[in-house]
Amino acid sequence: MKWLLFALCLLPFAGMAQKTDSSYANWYYQDRMKLYNQLNDQPADILFLGNSITERGEWQELLPGRKVANRGIGGDNTFGVLARLDGVIQQQPKKIFLLIGINDIGRSLPTEVSLNNYRRILTRLTQGLPKTKIIVQCVLPLNEAKLPYAYLKGKAHMVKAMNEGIVKLAEEFSLTYLNLHELFADEKGELKADYTKDGIHLLPGAYVDWVNWLKTKKQL
Q1: Angle, in degrees to the nearest 10, between helices 111-128 and 156-172
Q2: Residue limits of the SGNH hydrolase-type esterase domain (predicted)?
Q3: Which residues make Cβ contacts (< 8 Å) with residue 10, sequence separation at least 6?
Q4: Mind listing the domains of the chain with CATH numbers?
């Protein structure tokens, strides 16, 4: 009887434990990887690494005359980036712009899990590409009023926590950290309305401002 009462007392806590969703290799990821794996022999001076926010940038046209590789994959997370670093290292880029994390937040992954992945990503890149300049970019802000995605609403605090961890990792690895909120955030700390239609992704014109901002920061 005592054992039964003890078990019943534990029942409310049983549902609190959540399994970490580490999946990433959906059909879209796999299709992009088939493409990227065919391009990894092409040298790149600059490589942009991340999710859909990176993938949607027309970096080759924005940086004419430069050897640019776009390694963004829509929907990707820190697990997915970690799994595809061999191809990034194979290209031996001179410079990498890293931006990842918002899809981890969308899944409500524990921040410490994402930051542990982030640490592993930076360890792998710095060891595999000792001569490459790795530029760590913060997770972009969200615009709550424009967000149609319920899974991202009310998560500005998670963006803040993620970025606090990312800046510490950049310092730990002695890497350049760029606070993109300087460009993309409004006075309330949200993604500027003129830069987005859905509160998370950037409109095409925003990428022009992004590149120009990177140039003012002497990163391009």
Answers
A1: 30
A2: 48-202
A3: none
A4: 40-216 (3.40.50.1110)
Answer whether residue 7 shows pLDDT above 90. no
**Backbone angles phi and psi of 59, in degrees to 5:** -65, -35
Instruction: Tell me which residue of 118, 101, 195, 192 sits closest to 152, measured CA to CA.
Output: 101
Per-residue model confidence as pLDDT tens digits over 179-205? 999 999 999 999 999 999 999 999 999
Question: 3-class secondary structure for the chain?
Answer: CHHHHHHHHHHHHHCCCCCCCCCCCCHHHHHHHHHHHHHCCCCCCEEEEECHHHHCCCHHHHCCCCCEEEEECCCCCHHHHHHCHHHHHHHCCCEEEEECCHHHHHCCCCHHHHHHHHHHHHHHHHHHCCCCEEEEECCCCCCHHHCCCHHHCCCHHHHHHHHHHHHHHHHHCCCEEECCHHHHECCCCCECHHHCCCCCCCCHHHHHHHHHHHHHCCCC
Q: What pLDDT shows up at residue 35?
A: 96
With a threshold of 0.85, does the pTM exceed it? Answer: yes
- pLDDT at 14 (0 to 100): 38
